[in-house]
Amino acid sequence: MFDAPIVLASSLSIGHHGVMPVILEEGDAIIMDQQVHSSVQDAARKMQLNGVHLTIVRHNQLSELKKKIEELGAKYNRIWYMCDGVYSMYGDVAPINELISLADHYKNFYLYVDDAHGMSSFGKNGTGYILSKASLHPKMILCTGMAKGFGTIGAIFVIPDQELALKVRNCSGPLIFSGQQATSILAASIASAKIHLSGEIEVRQKFLAEKISYCHRLLKKYELPDISDPETPIFFIGLGMMSVGFNLVERMIKEGFYVNIAAFPAVPEICTGIRFTVTIHTTLEDIEKLVEALVKHFPLALKEEGRTFKDIQRAFRKVSNFDNNQFIPVVKNEQNYFRVSHTDSINEVSESLWNKLLGHRGIFTHKALQLMERTFQLSDKPEDNWKFHYYFIYDSNNKPIIATFFTEALVKSDMLSPASVSEQIEEKRKHDPYYLTSKALVMGTVISEGDHLYLDKSNNDWRNALMLLLDTVSELSEKVNIGQVLIRDMNANDTEINDFFIHHGFVRYQLPETHVIEDLKWNNKQEFLNRFHKHRKQYLKQRVFKSEDDFNVKVYSGNNDRIALWYQLYRNTAQKSVQLNTFVLPENFFQNIIEDTDWEVIELSYKGDNTTDREIVVAVMFCYKTGNSYCPLYAGLNYDYLDYDIYPQLLWQTILRAKELAVSPINLGFTASQNKKKFGVISYSNVGYLQMKDSYQMALINLMPNEVR
Q1: How far apart are CA 528 and CA 125, in angstroms?
Q2: CA 327 – CA 316 distance, rounded (Å)
Q3: Closest CA to 83 of 118, 40, 119
Q4: In the structure, what pLDDT confidence band is assigned to residue 180 with cuts at 50, 70 and 90?
Q5: Where do the BioF2-like acetyltransferase domain residues begin and end (predicted)?
Q6: Which DSSP string corresponds to 419-467?
Q7: Per-residue confidence at 329, pLDDT binned at 50, 70, 90?
Q8: Of 288, 202, 304, residue with least CA distance to 250
């Protein structure tokens, strides 16, 4: 069939794991297409352990691929581009002729192509889509499966180099030690191969092509959102939200049509769809009935989930070419009357209303947000320019059901990644400060902490109100071309909220624990110590109380004479902390907060060791005072004095300051859990919900090795 050396495997997955370790060597690099099949990705990831560099490029982006080849060309021996011939989600195809041109142009560039979904349907002797468009290139490994169009079980690896093919056959552990194909399977494969070598395969291919074309014509006739390639037997109907996908799949199965859902992570969260295939056994009547059922249930599923066709057009604008007049007049469910209020300045919001609903929950009182709006604007650095969006949703009685705010800001895409991953990325940012960064709409701000969403669940229609908020934010993200929306600091145990966001296409992610001291009902150190077990008492006595007299503590407010020193201490800490990886804040933020009487700075100075009279400022804590809580926001440390237990001492002095002010709770925030738990904090588990239009950066980050510390 292939007129080239081949290696057989019992499955493609086993084959990829067997072939890659033989053909790739330490010092090689792999570039994966973002949508290459999962079996290829899984095997490629394991090659990192063999000293092979692994990265990705956006789907079918040749210009990006070319840049990546040139970037890696001088660093690595060979560069392997791994892609599909026919992609399993959208049914689109690889630009194989352009890829072969790159292989001809770049001496150390090679191709590894999985054409399982093109097998039998295309090409001479049914050898697949790739060989229907080009000849087998000497620098290409072609992989294909026998479990789809071929009609049996197993996998074929076409390796132009006879010596390399023998090496794979004789040296591949997974191929040598995996179970061999049964005799019955081999017999069936031989019978199928005989069909492929006869004229019958061309008749079957033509027959299939006619049915594919007929199905596409019907989908276009009824203006259904057909995202798939017109040549391939894989069909993808774009639906947008995951909830619509599940709804329509259930409806179609009840009608007797087996279709399956394509959802995250195979596609972006808002690009859910249903998939089905057409075979030569599918009759024209089957196709007509399938499309008839889609025409009936597609608008019903949209309506039931409160979606419109315009949502789908927004989601698939990059992968489809809808006609301008293509539109199905679907209306959303009848809902209670809601009124949305949106403004971009806190000055246009009632101070009393805001502070009543949200301001008491953290560092986002009306006054605090005024300060942030003044600070994060007109900067030369993009990360220091924020735009604020405040939302209220009122019911028919003009009662607020929802109040919240979002910040439009540049964020590091690894903000919540493991510290070891962020450390690798920060090395690259020394030369490219905005590597793996992107704009996001973040509920709250990137520096605030707390429950940023006021939601009146006593209103039975709160879900529709929350859906209206998401629609409004989605329209904003489309308008300002922002690809991700982050919902923050939600109660991890709120199953209603969790189900809502998951149902509407958000991905849940774990946030670092937040730490709170709620009870300050003690009068002295001994009463404070009596709350703890023996080992914690010993820690506090030896590491905190014993050295307390070695430090002077001062509290500053409304005075910025020492801001340069304090800011340097903050930068020391911010640049070392990657557990929650954010941009270093600008100095003018700290200048502004020091001039605000709601803020204060706790300064910790080491008295010295009697060799000098000069005190040395070793730590500071920037704290915000609300009417009923104390919020330490950032610490700054002199790392030359870490052995003096300055951070535990700073935490203790912060607790004493809140006690002096008679303010509780103390919101000690994220990170440094081990230290904070020594002081009896209560730790709360919060989660966030993320929706992304383009998951490329996250996919790239997920390729980086996470070294467990």
Answers
A1: 82
A2: 14
A3: 40
A4: confident
A5: 535-669
A6: HHHHHHHHHHHTT-TTTTEEEEEEES-SS--S---EE-TTSTTHHHHHH
A7: very low
A8: 304
Alpha carbons 3 and 212: distance in angstroms, whole number: 29
Can you give the three-state secondary structure of 460-512, one letter per residue? CCHHHHHHHHHHHHHHHHHHCCCCEEEEEEEECCCHHHHHHHHHCCCEEEECC
Determine the pLDDT at residue 627: 75
Give tens-digit pLDDT for 375-427.
Answer: 999 999 999 999 999 999 999 999 999 999 999 999 999 998 998 999 999 99
Distance CA 570, CA 523 (A): 32
Contact 593, 371 (CB under 8 A): yes
Q: What is the dihedral of CA 614, 615, 618, 620, to 10 degrees?
A: -130
User: At residue 224, does pLDDT exceed 80?
Assistant: yes
Q: How does DSSP classify residue 542? A: I
What string of DSSP letters covers 286-315? HHHHHHHHHHHHHHHHHHHTT--HHHHHHH
Residue reference for tokens 């709601």: 598
CB 689 within 8 A of CB 508: yes
Give mean pLDDT, residues 29-46.
Answer: 96
Q: What is the pLDDT at residue 131? A: 98
* Paired strand residues for 487: 689
- Over the stretch 425-469, which tens digit does the pLDDT of each residue have? 999 999 999 999 999 999 999 999 999 999 999 999 999 999 999
User: What whole-number distance in Å separates Cα of residue 450 and Cα of residue 501?
Assistant: 18
Question: Domains in the chain, start-ordered, CATH in brackets?
Answer: 6-196 (3.40.640.10), 210-315 (3.90.1150.10), 339-507 (3.40.630.30), 515-684 (3.40.630.30)
DSSP β-bridge partners for residue 343: 390
Residue labelled with tokens 């902390």: 577
pLDDT digits (tens, 9 = 90+) for 226-272: 999 999 999 999 999 889 999 999 999 999 999 999 988 888 888 89
CA 94 to chain centre: 25
Based on C-alpha coordinates, what's the Rg of the chain?
30
Distance of CA 565 to the CA centre of its chain: 37
CA atoms within 13 A on the CB side of 669: 22
